[in-house]
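Reopening this ticket.

The earlier resolution said the output was attached, but the attachment link was broken on my side. Pasting everything inline this time so it's all in one place.
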Amino acid sequence: MFINPENPTRMEGTIQDNQLGWILEPNFNGTLKTDEFIMSININNGSYRDEILHKKIKENEKKRIILIGDSFTFGYGVN
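Inline output:
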């Protein structure tokens, strides 16, 4: 994410959360540019890195997997 120049302790695209500390900002869309890569960041209304938040009810034969973790799990540098 990006360092917020108005508040250097906060990364742009994140918001403070009373339980978790910091979470991804719902509906955030941005681009991270470094010397190594350009990365599009799309956060949905559920604070997940995805374009849409999938409906909670699913068909029985379908499975969903959620990955929770650090910058590797986030896909830092991956479009």
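Reporter confirms the inline version is readable. Strands lie at 2-4, 7-12, 14-17, 21-24, 29-33, 38-42. The radius of gyration is 14 Å.
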